[in-house]
Amino acid sequence: MKNWFSISALTIPLLLIVPAALRATEATPPSKPNIIFILADDLGIGDVGAYGQQKIRTPNIDRIAAEGMRFTGFYSGQCVCAPSRCTLMTGKHTGHSVVRDNVQRGPGDEGQVPMPQGTVTVPQLLKKAGYATAIVGKWGLGMPADKSSPLDFGFDHHYGYLCQGVAHTYYPPYLWRDNVKEMLEGNPPYEPSMRGAIPSSGKTYSADLIDNDGLSWVRSHKDGPFFLYFASTVPHLSLQVPDDSLAEYQGKWTETPYRNTKHYANNENPRATYAAMITRFDRDVGRLLDLLKELKLDDNTLVFFSSDNGAVFPLAGTDPVFFNSTGGLRGYKQDLYEGGIRTPFLARWPGHVKAGSTNDRMGAFWDMMPTFCELTGITPPADIDGISILPTLLGQPGQKAHDHLYWEYHSGGKAQAVRFGEWKAIRNGVKKAPDSTPELYNLKTDPAEKTDVAAEHPDITARAAALMKSAHTPSARAQWNF
């Protein structure tokens, strides 16, 4: 290595110029990082190797953890799809958000109850900072007819499903591209109102098309900055996967065929199919990471990975007990117990987020909007519930903490949950007993929520009840009020 004394006299005039050049560089703001948010659908925290999965291979998702930060106390926005995605897009928990449950637009109609016009979203804010924006995969927050498609809320591009009902099949007759239906060759007809009519297979597997479109979009926007919301439908039911992926797991375990379904596709090898779907999705994640490396975007791209809610309960052939999909936590999708809302959450940004790190900070999906805003120099809306986690990601001081986190769920008799410190309180059956004493759990000593200690801590239980009351604000839809 050369030192000062080995540099020739001819080099000295150049060295004298360096300070001015450095000052010019420092005066120029650094380029804004690209942001990719990968969202799985109904993937349990225990379905990923980085969180203890033993049967299903997820090497690329595990790579995000190994090369970044693994969170152990992070939560989804809700215990079902649409409201969880709404909290991610708006920075508001379900006590304040505009979508608080899964509700179809109408009997047999495609699409869910829309976000109202004027709702402020993540892509709208990022566009103000000069970002190109895209979503590939499932939207679930409205249709073009309602002016509530992704293109109405700040996305430049969308390819995939608009309706969660149509997303029950991986062989749909069409996908949506920028508000226009594109028919898929060789796939059978299907409408959200159909029951018992989802075929087991078709010619064109939607998840492959969605992944390819996302890769193509990244390649065409490599000069950035860009925001890609990769909202996969895997492993959301039905259980369907091409034979080339099924081959890895077929015959590996004893199977109980799933037949005569009233809603989802029949499946002769449900365990193998579930595992194969996740490993194929993991392959897609790997293709995306490899593309970032190929385009030399690794060091300038912050990648997040999570799931919209916990693992689905035993349904349509799924076997969450066999796979330990909840990681030993209580409850499933549609529960506000930990198994329904605590999800895998990973962040990777080489050179910025410490590789192989673990963080137990209490956070949730509504923290994403302020995080993106701080990252890109945007002022977030004043009425959101989130707190930026950028200091945590960068290992810097000044990280603010939540006083509490709150969820509400309106199907199945209505429920509320609040997390504060080591305590978690849940009130089920709110419709019949809105003032009932909540269940109380100490997650530090009882992470599986096995022992209700409400009677032993009346003061803490009373605080939880007060937080539940104050966190809920009236919704414009009467069915979403207590």
How would you explain this protein's 3D organization?
This protein is an alpha/beta fold. The chain folds into two domains: 34-394, Alkaline Phosphatase, subunit A (3-Layer(aba) Sandwich), CATH 3.40.720; 406-480, Arylsulfatase, C-terminal domain. Helices cover 25% and strands 16% of the residues. It has helices at 12-27, 59-66, 81-90, 122-128, 206-220, 243-246, 270-294, 320-323, 338-341, 368-376, 390-394, 458-471, and strands at 34-40, 69-71, 74-75, 132-138, 157-161, 174-177, 180-183, 226-231, 301-307, 345-348, 357-359, 363-364, 405-409, 415-420, 423-428, 439-442. Strands 7-6-5-4-8-1-9-10-2-11 form a ten-stranded mixed sheet, with helices on both faces. Strands 13-14-15-16 form a four-stranded antiparallel sheet, with helices on one face. α5 (206-220) runs parallel beside α7. The protein is globular, with a radius of gyration of 23 Å. The model is unreliable at 1-30 (pLDDT under 50).
Secondary structure layout:
Elements: H1 12-27, E1 34-40, H2 59-66, E2 69-71, E3 74-75, H3 81-90, H4 122-128, E4 132-138, E5 157-161, E6 174-177, E7 180-183, H5 206-220, E8 226-231, H6 243-246, H7 270-294, E9 301-307, H8 320-323, H9 338-341, E10 345-348, E11 357-359, E12 363-364, H10 368-376, H11 390-394, E13 405-409, E14 415-420, E15 423-428, E16 439-442, H12 458-471
Parallel strand pairs: 1-8, 1-9, 2-11, 3-12, 4-5, 4-8
Antiparallel strand pairs: 2-10, 5-6, 6-7, 9-10, 13-14, 14-15, 15-16
